[in-house]
């Protein structure tokens, strides 16, 4: 017989103590309200384990009574993977699993628990003279478990790769409560399947990540940062290829932002001043890292050479830490500013780098045909082909009516172009509950069968994050 909500809360309280269980809906808001406010379900309970053993106890209890569990980190996900879908789930918050277990800069790795905030992981690495180079706009609230579960990318993918590339090993509680102890720090371990890669990017559907061993790198001595003006995206692509040939792995970021993004931020007073060289259809934020004893001026020399052959219109360089912070704020505030402009249709897509100009040109034209007055705000990681292809409502439009009439048709138009170009419907945000139906339409059937077989093998009761990723 199924347990009542009261019995579930009582059982969890007996396992964890009353301070680690939230059973009153009025106290659940921070765990249920995700950033885009698209999903509106309650939960049976929120549990806040403080140890890995407590996570194991929770999972064993859930397996015994066939209760649904949702792992949750900082609740920053944009596709609903970390919040309830059915209304009867138990959210397992990792916020109290927040210890930095070890940092070894000489060996190039650190081990942290899944509830460590990304920014705190940065600070731990920097205190040891190293960097953990995964940088996100939400790094002040995103937690390591969620970052790994969604295989987040961020702005430094060019030089360092995404979350999976930066993960050496993971520790995770499986669906029956057993602990997978995979905190491997070996650079070479050819002993079978790479199990960490199953768990990284699995969105909590195969296990609850409790800790990870992450790669860290020597701190750059300095950064060279610039914003350049570009007449079009073909010029941006040509400039990227030109700079990559000269800076190679030191080119850590190449981010594009349209003029509308600057206009919005200035209109809402989000920038102390205009950080760009002047009016332009497009801007690129470019950064090169300089290692100890490395030559300075690499970026300036390369941009001057690019300017001489007509690859850009103008440029401004960061001359201080404050300048660099302002330039990065310009890029990182792009998602936030759109919320100030009303409703926004968002896409996290990727295509081969050479096809980014075609994606944006065709996508903007298609959306404008479907919704006159819609405002295209595509921005993001040109260097790895990942574009946040967003659209803000027409000026003066009713937000609810805009979303009801436009959301699905614009999605269909953009995804058709993305798939035709050989791209992906989810570059770094994941599938969650937002894109489960779409995944079934676009994923190779054999790949889906393999994914379902893995899910069945590791979670036969289907208790881990049900209704997410694989519906």
Describe the overall structure.
- The chain has 471 residues and is of the alpha+beta class.
- The chain folds into four domains: 5-93, 2-Layer Sandwich (Uridine Diphospho-n-acetylenolpyruvylglucosamine Reductase, domain 2), CATH 3.30.43; 100-218, Uridine Diphospho-n-acetylenolpyruvylglucosamine Reductase, domain 3 (2-Layer Sandwich), CATH 3.30.465.10; 222-335, Alpha-Beta Plaits, CATH 3.30.70; 341-420, Alpha-Beta Plaits (2-Layer Sandwich), CATH 3.30.70.
- It is 35% helix and 20% strand.
- It is built from 16 helices and 19 strands.
- Strand 5 and strand 6 form a beta hairpin.
- Helix 8 crosses helix 10.
- The radius of gyration is 23 Å and the shape is globular.
- The chain starts with a helix and ends in a 13-residue tail after the last helix.
Quick description:
Helices cover 35% and strands 20% of the residues. The chain is an alpha+beta fold and 471 residues long.
Helix content: 25-40%
Question: What's the N-to-C terminus distance?
Answer: 25 Å
Please identify the structural class as seen in this structure: alpha+beta
- Roughly how many Å is the radius of gyration? 23 Å
List segments where confidence is low: pLDDT < 50 over at least 5 consecutive residues: none
Number of strands: 19
Mean pLDDT: 95
CATH topology of the largest domain: Uridine Diphospho-n-acetylenolpyruvylglucosamine Reductase, domain 3
Counting DSSP H or I runs of 4 or more residues, the number of helices is 16
Second rung of CATH, namely the architecture of the largest domain = 2-Layer Sandwich
Query: So what's the overall shape?
Result: globular
Report on the biggest sheet. 8 strands, antiparallel
Classify the beta-strand content into a percent band: 15-25%
- Counted up, domains total 4
Which class of the largest domain in CATH terms?
Alpha Beta
């Amino acid at each position: 017989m199924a347990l009542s909500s009261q019995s579930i809360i009582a059982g969890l309280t007996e396992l964890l103590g009353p301070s680690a269980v939230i059973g009153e809906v009025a106290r659940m808001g921070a765990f249920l309200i995700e950033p885009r406010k698209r999903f509106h379900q309650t939960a049976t309970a929120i549990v806040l384990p403080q140890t890995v053993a407590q996570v194991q106890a929770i999972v064993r209890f859930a397996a015994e009574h066939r209760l649904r569990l949702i792992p949750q980190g900082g609740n920053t996900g944009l596709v609903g993977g970390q919040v309830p879908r059915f209304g009867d789930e138990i959210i397992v918050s990792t916020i109290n699993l927040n210890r930095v277990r070890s940092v070894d800069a000489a060996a190039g790795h650190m081990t942290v628990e899944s509830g460590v905030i990304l920014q705190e992981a940065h600070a731990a690495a920097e205190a040891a003279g190293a960097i953990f180079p995964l940088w996100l706009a939400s790094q002040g609230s995103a937690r390591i478990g969620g970052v790994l579960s969604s295989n987040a990318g961020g702005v430094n993918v060019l030089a360092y790769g995404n979350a999976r590339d930066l993960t050496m090993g993971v520790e995770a509680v499986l669906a029956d409560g057993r602990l997978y102890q995979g905190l491997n720090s070996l650079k070479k371990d050819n002993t079978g399947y790479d199990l960490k890669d199953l768990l990284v990017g699995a969105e909590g559907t195969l296990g609850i990540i409790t800790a990870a061993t992450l790669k860290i790198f020597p701190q750059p001595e300095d950064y060279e940062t610039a914003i350049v003006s570009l007449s079009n995206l073909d010029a941006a692509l040509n400039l990227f290829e030109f700079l990559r040939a000269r800076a190679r792995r030191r080119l850590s970021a190449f981010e594009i932002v349209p003029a509308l993004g600057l206009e919005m931020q200035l209109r809402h007073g989000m920038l102390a001043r205009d950080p760009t060289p002047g009016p332009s259809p497009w801007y690129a934020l470019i950064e090169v890292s300089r290692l100890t004893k490395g030559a300075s001026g690499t970026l300036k020399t390369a941009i001057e050479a690019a300017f001489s052959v007509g690859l850009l219109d103008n440029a401004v360089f960061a001359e201080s830490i404050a300048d660099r912070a302002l330039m990065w704020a310009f890029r990182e505030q792009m998602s936030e500013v759109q919320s100030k402009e009303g409703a926004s249709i968002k896409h996290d897509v990727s295509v081969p780098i050479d096809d980014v100009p075609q994606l944006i040109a065709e996508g903007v034209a298609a959306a404008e045909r479907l919704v006159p007055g819609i405002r295209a705000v595509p921005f993001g990681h040109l260097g790895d082909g990942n574009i946040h292809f967003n659209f803000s409502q027409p000026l003066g439009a009713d937000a609810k009516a805009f979303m009801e009439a436009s959301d699905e048709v614009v999605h269909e138009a953009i995804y058709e172009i993305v798939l035709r170009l050989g791209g992906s419907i989810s570059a770094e945000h994941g599938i969650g509950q937002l894109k489960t139906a779409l995944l079934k339409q676009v994923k190779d059937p054999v790949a889906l069968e393999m994914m379902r077989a893995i899910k069945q093998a590791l979670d036969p009761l289907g208790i881990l994050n049900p209704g997410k990723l694989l519906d």
